[in-house]
Inverse folding.
């Protein structure tokens, strides 16, 4: 009888030990599964995250670029006007030098 009681006690201890091992294995496998799942979700969302950052950059940059474009267009308009004025002034200076020659000829006659 003593052997059978001893056997039952050993079996009970083994069952408790295996239950602890099973619980630890379940916990570990659940952590591995969750970590793998999180990794796969991150990898799947990585391209869309990159597109999101690009979209944010564009959203922040476009208003500034439009301001610079308007400023460049305004400066271009002013520069074209100044070039036109300069060409007109050069034509007038050339005309004055020709007039001086004509006026000198008229005064000497």
């Amino acid at each position: 009888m003593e052997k059978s009681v001893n056997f039952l006690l050993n079996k009970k201890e083994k069952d408790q030990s295996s239950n602890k091992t099973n619980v630890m294995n379940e916990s570990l496998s659940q952590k591995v599964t969750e970590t793998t799942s999180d990794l796969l979700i991150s990898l799947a969302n990585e391209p869309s995250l990159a597109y999101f950052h690009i979209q944010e950059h564009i959203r922040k940059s476009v208003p500034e670029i439009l301001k610079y474009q308007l400023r460049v267009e305004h400066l271009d308009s002013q520069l074209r006007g100044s070039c036109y004025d300069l060409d007109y002034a050069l034509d007038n200076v050339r005309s004055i030098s020709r007039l001086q020659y004509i006026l000198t000829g008229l005064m000497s006659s």
In short: Helices lie at 2-108. The CA atoms of residues 103 and 109 lie 10 Å apart. The chain has a mean pLDDT of 83. The radius of gyration is 46 Å.
